[in-house]
Amino acid sequence: MLEMVKGANVGLASLSEDASSVVLSLAWCSATGDGDADVSVLLLDANGKVRSDADFFFYNNPTAADGSVQLLGKTPTADGSEDRITLDLTAMPSGVERVVVAASRYGDARFGDLDDLRIAIADRAGESLLGFSITDAGVESAFIFGELYRRGEEWKFRAVGQGYETGLAGLATDFGIDVDDASEEEPEESVAGTEPSAVVVEAPAESPMTVPAQAAAPETAATKPRRPRTAKKKVTIPQTAPKSLAENDAWRQARLFPASSLKNDRERETRATSVLLSVMAQVPEFGRRLTAAFGAPAGRMQTFTEVSLPHGDTPKRPDGVVRVERAGKLWTALVETKTNGNPLKPEQVQDYMDIAARRGYEAVITLSNDVALEGRPLVDVKIDGRRKHKVTLWHLSWAEVTHQAQMLIRHEGVGNAAHAWLLNELLHYLQHENSGCHGFQNMGSAWVPVRKGIEEETLCQGDQRAVEVAENWERLVRQVCLRLGGELGQKVLPVQRAKRGTDPQARRVALADSFCENGRLNAEIRIDGTPGVMALVADLRTGKLRTSIEVPAPEQGYPLTWAKRLIRQLAEAPADLHIETLVQGEGRGPRGTLERLRPEPADIIPKDSFQITGFRLSLLKGMGSARGNAESGFIRSVDDAVDRFYANVVAHLESRQARGPRPVEAATTG
Q1: Residue 373 confidence class, pLDDT cut points 50, 70, 90
Q2: Residue range 94-113: average pLDDT?
Q3: Is residue 26 within 8 Å of residue 102, measured between CB atoms?
Q4: Angle at alpha carbon of residue 285, lines to 228 and 288, rounded to 5°
């Protein structure tokens, strides 16, 4: 991979024979784990301006109608997360001369607070082409990472690294976007209470857009406007189901994809594959969402099941085939599916990789209940380096499929009511107890002996079984993020506090050794729009799950006012919620249960002159012991603990409280 310096440029064709479609990855990390930014793409003409506001792509306008640009959202990495963008350069309109790739932060956040700012580009086959790291970020709240530009018939990349103190509003204005400070009308579809402040980018009447308000004046919680969840008038399924016309609750509604009659794994696998592929072909937004990350262009998609392909003496029958046509070019992939927790078979996947290489297919996609980890392939296959044609192996979990369906029909919307209904039927099928598509559901064969080893204090560091448990814990946490994000319509991502470039497997081994020593599995989850990072600790020695969040102290006001406001926000929280005051330095602040603190909020204020930095809120819950997803299972207990803590505690907290310690001695009564 070519490492670039600021200002350098390179032709993409010189780096790859297959650079007509590229995947750009923007990444950064934060010592606190809660740093975030939003990516954006601008298409510019020969004058360096957008042709219209439709050439501005961001979270509320993520996809170009012609498929040339698609923002894929965030994906977890070993160091945190990265935002990915696909650019189909063959579909780029002839009037577009430059493609600017940028990111922005909101409020008082600055890029200088983030570490390891980086952009990387891979070709259609997933081969890394180049990388550019930004090392001089400071007070800027918006940054241009790089740009692609035409030189004759060739596309080139330039490493830019230019920042804006005026945020996304200043960047957008520079390139011809008209920015207004307030919205004159509220879009029809929004999620109340969870959106950061926004300013409106003046766009055509049929497509109002909003961008984060880096340049807007600070607002209070009472006056903060709501950010619309979608920029276009799209169709979503109502959160509340309409009243049933059935005579009694025993009647079952007719379904397009019935799951109750499935009797064995083979039937589940065949039905699930056919249901998914058919909906992908009929709902363009959904099909693109699942295949764009694999290098597929935006075009006419057709899907097939149970296809027979020659392979030696015995033909092979992959579960499915996906074919996408764009501008006379064909992108193709084989699909291998497993349901009900059945593992992928390495020899089967290897056969399909060989067939794909011989027949010119671009990819093999595996789909199962398992969740893939970075640096830890689910299936080891051999790639024949002598073949000129490259085939990439990708994996989807059923949890990710469900997440994407939820995001579209409940939060972002699709093109028409028929598409929304189809996606809703698919989602009902995936979530049916008999479908076998419920995602990661088993902590593995090592779970019980490791749990007993922790209880008996006989588990030693270096035990490979502990590494297996640590890997499955990471899979479970990622699945929790997918599920919660789909339900909330928010970005929910696991936080990895590791230096960029750290080997993922080495990090898991270190976590396993720590687990052997203290008996605790730790994870952190960042939920967009919440005041802090949710921590999750499974203590196998005590059999308890602890969920917690640290709420930073406001910048203005007095400690007693903060305490009273916090108690008011937690009016509906469980009485056994544990609250601890966080103070600067080595000391520890007061603590108590919500039940005790409700009549006396002043009890949470330190008596000494410590500076309060925030408050830690925690809930404890019994932990399931079984390795599976039954009522008594560990996985079910983790899901329940996270859901309970979010619904009863986190959802009621004010988002984006300003950070900043304040001396306690300023006021202790009143």
Answers
A1: confident
A2: 90
A3: no
A4: 125
